[in-house]
Design brief:
The protein is built from one helix and six strands; from the N terminus they run βββββαβ. The protein is an alpha+beta fold. The protein is globular and about 30 Å long.
Amino acid sequence: MFSSDEIQQKIRKSTNYLEWNDILKVREHPDMFQLYISRNKAILLPNSYFNSKADKEKFKQLIYKNVSKEKVKFL
């Protein structure tokens, strides 16, 4: 789950909370987004995560709002 305050990642029975400033870089690819939280670790979001193009655009706006522009590379 993504909000303007934090990122909440649920994996099985554990939940991780990240702040936007924990994101080192964001890369958009034709089929997914990569949100790097360390040099070798990233959250992968396939395009199927989004219900619509509008949801994908909202996500991109959330990134623009919370991650510095030099860390972001969209298509």
